[in-house]
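Re-run with default settings, no changes from the original entry. Doing this only to confirm the output is reproducible before filing.
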Amino acid sequence: MPGKYNLRFDIWGLLLFLGIMVPNFIWFAVPAPNDLLRTDSVTRIIDAIGSVFQVLMVIALCAYQNREWKTPGFSFLIAAVLICCLLYFTSWIMYYRGMVNPVVLLGLTVPPCLAFMCFALYRKNMLALISATVFFICHLTHTIVNFIV
């Protein structure tokens, strides 16, 4: 599989990652009311694994391109990425309006991961897809165990 990839910068992968991180940067600087997310995690090992795979995912999205991928233009997967981003930003708005419930918390977890996974599928980047999937499992486990159960 690694032989199918070129080491080449992908601006769209970086822009997707930075776009999804914008609400996180705001959250680091300006706490939300009822800020449940600032509590200590009980899933530290899972969080550490998730962080490693998040970094691997970003590297794969931004630095590796599948040689077989051809620019197909707008597709269902790009539409899915955009919809996931809108759901994610909407969840942040709801969170900052004081709505802290399982739907909002899952909205902060699931859509960004699905956006990364759909983008990786669109680019035929299995390295990014695998790392995004592991990150998603860890991120979802973190949210469910720490905030929902």
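Strands lie at 5-7, 64-66. The chain has a mean pLDDT of 94.
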